[in-house]
């Protein structure tokens, strides 16, 4: 037990923790430059830096016997564990408990001026255990909701301290062994800190990887699928449709004279129109349909297990919903209409074929005056007579 007493380990551990913190800071620095920096990255960075300073104060006190007017390491431990709770709350976007635990933290820090060492130790480790328990709850919940293993590691690290504190208190209060109590909490803090660094890095990198895979399959402006995402989403349902000879329909949607919107109202208004159209398509389609933006002002809906007549009904509904009243952007009314092409295929079909056929129908709608629905069946074409002149 002597070997792991703080006096012997502090300097060695300090080096290890310093390296871990450096690695964490490096990754944080790289990721914080991205458009959407990871949630809580600022407070977690402050926590890691502050904890390192706390370790330095601790090893100075232990190894040099430097006299300190107040128990600085104890205050640092209370403040740092509260900081960790704040960082976890920021990452989980859950501010609950900040004020109540903040008051507890303040009282704990002030108690350093009038408590004797034993009572001070119990107060400090008790409060730290409380803040770590709250951190563990926040990160555990986030790990479940986001399915992020990094948050689970952070929760596990916090649980280590939560378990160690009552064991240490027992050794002190029942066994009257202050030295053993301190060894237990010290060991738990060190392992916890190392696990926290690993957990935070894992959590952030895991999230970053998810973000990259979204970027590859999602249109960032509208939040709809992009071409690749559409292919990924439909792989299974198209394979099923081919195997069971089920009909699949597609609706190609193209905004009419969109260039005029950009020229007359500006690109920002144009982007707004794209987002509004995307939202309407998303709202009017079923959850089993796949909606994607596959070009500048071109969208496609793929409707599994849907025949041509049903797909036309949806297309007419979209045409009417978008054309019935102008969009309001910055007090300006922007009238828009769309041309829609509907196709339905069965047999051994591919996404490319569905897009090609619905595109053919959409061009028929454009050529026939826009703001209408046209459909194609193999070798046959139908033009909507419900389209309105915009
Ligand atoms: N604001 C904005 N405009 C875009 C975006 N992508 C493409 N565009 C614009 O969309 C317009 C497409 O113009 P065209 O292909 O000529 O089509 P159109 O003016 O809609 O004419 P028709 O399709 O024939 O009715 C161009 O002006 C592009 O600059 C985008 O992400 N944002």
Task: Please sum up the structure shown.
The chain is of the alpha+beta class and 390 residues long. Helices cover 66% and strands 11% of the residues. It has twelve helices and eight strands.
Q: How are the SSEs placed, and which strands pair?
A:
Elements: H1 6-32, H2 41-63, H3 72-92, H4 98-110, H5 117-146, H6 149-173, H7 178-217, H8 227-244, E1 248-255, H9 258-265, H10 267-284, E2 290-293, E3 298-304, H11 308-323, E4 327-329, E5 332-334, E6 338-345, H12 351-367, E7 373-377, E8 380-383
Parallel strand pairs: 6-7
Antiparallel strand pairs: 1-3, 1-6, 2-3, 4-5, 7-8
Helix pairs in contact: 1-2, 1-7, 2-3, 3-4, 3-5, 4-5, 5-6, 6-7, 9-10, 10-11
This protein binds guanosine-5'-triphosphate.
The site of guanosine-5'-triphosphate has 15 residues, from strand 1, helix 9 and helix 10.
């Amino acid at each position: 037990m002597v070997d792991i007493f703080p006096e012997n380990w502090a300097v060695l551990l300090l080096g290890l923790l310093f390296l871990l913190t450096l690695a964490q800071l490096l990754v944080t620095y790289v990721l914080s430059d991205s458009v959407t920096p990871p949630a809580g990255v600022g407070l977690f960075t402050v926590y890691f830096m502050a904890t390192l300073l706390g370790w330095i104060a601790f090893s100075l006190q232990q190894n040099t016997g430097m006299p300190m007017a107040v128990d600085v390491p104890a205050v640092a431990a209370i403040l740092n564990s509260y900081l960790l709770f704040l960082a976890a709350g920021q990452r989980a976007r859950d501010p609950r408990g900040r004020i109540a635990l903040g008051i507890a933290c303040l009282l704990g820090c002030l108690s350093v001026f009038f408590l004797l060492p034993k009572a001070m130790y119990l107060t400090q480790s008790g409060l730290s255990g409380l803040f770590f328990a709250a951190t563990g709850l926040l990160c555990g919940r986030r790990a479940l909701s986001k399915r992020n293993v990094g948050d689970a590691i952070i929760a596990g690290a916090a649980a280590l301290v939560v378990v160690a504190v009552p064991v240490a208190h027992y050794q002190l209060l029942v066994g009257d062994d202050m030295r053993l109590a301190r060894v237990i909490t010290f060991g738990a803090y060190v392992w916890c800190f190392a696990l926290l660094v690993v957990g935070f890095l894992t959590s952030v990198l895991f999230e970053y990887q998810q973000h990259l895979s979204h970027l590859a399959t999602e249109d960032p402006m509208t939040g709809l699928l992009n071409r690749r995402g559409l292919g990924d989403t439909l792989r299974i349902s198209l394979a099923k449709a081919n195997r069971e000879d089920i009909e699949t329909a597609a609706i190609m949607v193209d905004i009419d004279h969109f260039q005029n919107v950009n020229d007359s109202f500006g690109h920002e208004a144009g982007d707004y129109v794209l987002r509004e159209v995307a939202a309407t398509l998303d709202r009017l389609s079923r959850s089993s349909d796949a909606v994607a933006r596959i070009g500048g002002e071109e969208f496609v809906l793929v409707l599994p297990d849907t025949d041509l007549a049903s797909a036309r009904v949806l297309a007419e509904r979209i045409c009417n919903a978008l054309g019935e009243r102008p969009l309001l952007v910055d007090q300006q009314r922007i009238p828009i209409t769309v041309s829609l092409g509907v196709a339905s295929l069965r047999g051994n079909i591919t996404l490319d074929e569905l897009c090609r056929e619905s595109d053919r129908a959409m061009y028929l709608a454009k050529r026939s005056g826009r703001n209408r629905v046209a459909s194609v069946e193999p070798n046959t074409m139908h033009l909507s007579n419900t389209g309105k002149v915009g």
